[in-house]
Design brief:
Helix 5 crosses helix 11. The two termini are 14 Å apart. With 183 residues, the protein is an all-alpha fold. The chain has one domain. Helix content is 67%, strand content 0%.
């Protein structure tokens, strides 16, 4: 799962929510604020359960012929796009903008608890709303490409988002309720 999904799958405890958001950047829990550490553990658990879930596997299987071993990472970004684009289908009580604003306020209140190298990654979280648009997804895929070992051009996956949009959304609709039980 990617950032927007992790934000959605966070408890009301702000430190746990922040740890869940930054979980990919924490290598060791040693010296980490205990609440942040609980969030990192939650992040890892969500990713583990998601990766083994039948809906996630179906989605990844659709992308593997084109994206190979990058399919799961691309899928995480695609799921954030679907979540952002159809946010009120998943969270009828609020809008994407209102949700992201609330998550950003919570993040800002806990940011000082993060190790400095992690805290400087994001000034704010308002960029999460860019996932609702193809150009935001393209930008995320470009950044992921730069971090890949082979500098693969992951933007080549964009046509797959349109091709499999409905099927991926159905898979996400099946997956999210099961992941929400982990929180």
């Amino acid at each position: 799962m990617n950032y927007l999904a992790h934000a959605l799958l966070s408890p009301t405890d702000d430190t746990i929510m922040v740890g869940n958001l930054v979980g990919d950047y924490v290598r060791s829990l040693e010296g980490i604020d205990p609440g942040i550490g609980k969030g990192v553990i939650l992040h890892r658990r969500i990713d583990s359960v998601a990766n083994s879930h039948p809906a996630f596997r179906r989605s990844a299987h659709r992308l593997i012929p084109v994206m190979g071993h990058y399919a799961r990472a691309v899928l995480d970004i695609f799921y954030d796009h679907l979540l952002a684009r159809h946010f009120t289908d998943f969270v009828p009580a609020t809008t994407l903008d209102a949700f992201v604003d609330a998550i950003d306020r919570r993040y800002q209140g806990q940011r000082q608890r993060l190790p400095p190298d992690i805290a400087t990654r994001w000034d704010d979280l308002t960029w999460l709303t860019t996932y609702a648009h193809h150009d935001g997804i393209a930008s995320s895929l470009r950044r992921l490409s730069q971090r890949s070992r082979r500098h693969a051009d992951l933007t080549t996956a964009l046509p797959l988002l349109d091709e499999f949009h409905d099927a991926l959304k159905r898979d996400l609709e099946e997956l999210l309720p099961d992941l929400a039980k982990l929180v």
